[in-house]
Design goal:
The chain has 99 residues and is of the alpha+beta class. It has a single domain, classed as Winged helix-like DNA-binding domain superfamily/Winged helix DNA-binding domain (Arc Repressor Mutant, subunit A, Orthogonal Bundle). Helices cover 48% and strands 12% of the residues. It contains four helices and two strands; from the N terminus they run H-H-H-E-E-H. It has a two-stranded antiparallel ribbon. It starts with 11 loop residues before the first helix and ends with a helix.
Length: 99
């Protein structure tokens, strides 16, 4: 599942972080898990997380693993729909071949 369409026109790393978090909404993720899943430099990840936090699109909580990051409810689609699934190919091409 991907973040809602209205959040997909952000910087590439931010979109990747939101998509990974939406797929792990129940458990959340640590910064290390996010870095492995998104495969970006730590500075780029930190910048993306700071921006997403400032924009209230992620929530940071403390638990037994340390800081756990989850997407804000407004980012998570209610249900996957065909329109959102069809956008994934277009998004994939856009991510791989930025114009």
């Amino acid at each position: 599942m991907k973040a809602k369409r209205e959040y997909r026109d952000r910087e590439r790393t931010q979109v990747a972080v939101l998509d990974v978090l939406v797929n792990n909404v129940e458990d959340g993720m640590t910064v290390f898990e996010l870095r492995a899943a998104v495969s970006v430099e730590i500075d780029d990840l930190e910048d993306a997380l700071a921006t997403l936090k400032d924009d209230n699109l992620i929530v940071v909580e403390r638990d037994g693993r340390g800081a756990v990051i989850r997407p804000d409810d407004q980012v998570v689609p209610d249900e996957p729909d065909d329109e959102n699934e069809g956008a994934s190919l277009r998004d994939w091409v856009r991510e791989r071949f930025p114009f």
